[in-house]
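Dear support,

I submitted the protein below through the web form. The confirmation email said the job was done, but the results page showed an empty box. After a refresh the structure appeared. I'm attaching both so you can tell me whether what I see now is the final result or a partial one.
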Amino acid sequence: MQVAGVDFRVNHPVLALGSTDWLPALALEGEAAVGCDTHVAVRVQAQARLIKIRLFTEPLDEEPGPDPSFTTVFEGPISLADGRLVIGDVMGVTRFVNLIGEGGRRRIRVAVDEPGWNAAAVDISVGPKL
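What the results page shows now:
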């Protein structure tokens, strides 16, 4: 089931998603995305055009679902302390908050249309509570 679709104009080439808790410093180095226990940082195009972000939650049996042609750049569990997922640039200028459900650990899959600095579309799939 698709929860939300938003278009962001980001001022910074790193999109962060995760818990409403404090965002730790995540070094991307040469990677398209990196994650920790509470957040994921993803490289995207900055200031060039709108970044399309789609958020999906379980069950994923309804159409449309995540784009199967996108490349997975992160997959793993993260902890959402209060059940809300925050998506925005790491500068905090652009920010979107969505209530996913109860707080706790959930499996997150992040996929992009083009990994690296040219990513202009991001699909985020949030699984059930672990």
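Response: this is the final, complete result; the empty box was a page-load delay. The chain has a mean pLDDT of 89.
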